[in-house]
Amino acid sequence: MADSGWRISAGAVACPGLPGYVYPAAATCLRKRKGFPNASFRVWGPKHGTRFPVLCPPFSVLRPPAGIRGFTLLELILVMVILSTVLAMAAPSLSGFFASRQINDAAAQILALTQLARSQAISEGIIYRLNFDTQRHTYWLTAQRTGAFEKLKTEVGQVFELPKDMVMELEGLQKKDGDTFLAFTPNGTVTAGMVRLIDRRGRAFEVTCPTATESFSIIESTKTYARYASR
Prior knowledge:
Blueprint: E1 7-9, E2 28-31, E3 40-44, E4 51-55, H1 73-124, E5 128-133, E6 138-145, E7 148-151, E8 160-161, E9 167-171, E10 174-176, E11 179-184, E12 194-198, E13 204-208, E14 217-220
Antiparallel strand pairs: 1-2, 2-3, 3-4, 5-6, 5-11, 6-7, 6-8, 9-12, 10-11, 12-13, 13-14
């Protein structure tokens, strides 16, 4: 029986009549009769011109519903411009937020190291040091073993580095043989000193201990260090 109707490429059409069957580019679907919701189709297979009679929905259901259209290039460009403008306006605020988090985290880390050094010095009966290098913006723990101070062979014994664009000032720390440090003794006393961290906006946090018998704490300075701002 001859087929009538219009011929449509089936390269990207999937019919439920043949589950999992991928139509090759050469395959063609023929709609037998226009206007029937469940019209019968015949599909030319890739081998030997074999025909597979299947039941498919009309091709109209495979098209986008009436009234629905895609975005034009002009609309997409307009959306990109709006997004770029919003991000550009929010960038300074986001930068300040992340800088604030960095100085908070660095101060908290130094405070945690002072607490660890003090407790370990008491429990092990040896002197611990928290060393600082203001030129390299680094700090690390050492412990006195066999007469010399050695780096700890644990994760907390690594050399920590301050975030970029952050500086460190030291007040009241001990100095010996070119090293600058806070000392923690087995009897619980510490070096009364202060470590001041300053970010690129001139905001400062101080990790400080006023006396040898007190613990360190973090204080946010009310002073703005303008000489360090936007370095």
